Amino acid sequence: MYTVLNGDMCESTIKSSKGDIFRQVGTPQDQRDWTIDQWEPLKDKVLAVTMGNHELRIYNETGIDICADIAKALGVPYRAEGLLLRVVFGSGNSRHCNKPYSYTGYFTHGYGGARTNSAKAVKVERTAASVHADFYVMSHDHVVNAARVVYLIPDTRTHIDKDGFEVSQVTAHRKMLVKSNAFLKWGGYSEMGGFPPVDLETPIIKLAGRGKPWVNVEI
User: Fold this and answer.
1) How far, in Å, CA of 72 to CA of 92, rounded?
2) How far apart are CA 127 and CA 108, in angstroms?
3) What residue segments make up the domains of the chain, in order of their start?
4) pTM
């Protein structure tokens, strides 16, 4: 099992931003260092790091990127805006029982505000229309959601059918659209702002190794 740190790892409240600067635990630097310490024993399980809107508060004010610091300390790839990740497993060849499989996933923290679950879920659907991948993960909205989208890929190879026409085939391909969870319990600004309690369970993306359609999500 592996993970991506998809932003908002630190509270990062500063005087000019949203959030309660008096209740946050430690300075932004303390939060950065704590995050590194927590993930250091598990760094081999972290595939990549992106930036969240919380860390963006510091970057916009100072130009200091604490997410880049976290990624560098863990020795993993980093891209603030989002990351297209290729996951490959299987050490054999195509005729071997341990034949290789390759999947692509796109991770980005997310953006904007939304109240309803459908409005939050549609953000990752829009992203899937712009970036080609097998699965997509977007965070930010604190709501867990997983949906399947199937699209058809034309095969450029052709053959002559029984009526003498040159024909081809299409292959159904599944995209998994995932909104990831938060670890923030109800109360504080979320309760005062009229936001509902959220599910704290983490979605798990399963790459089954049985071909491209076999990408699934458990919550």
Assistant:
1) 32
2) 9
3) 3-218
4) 0.88
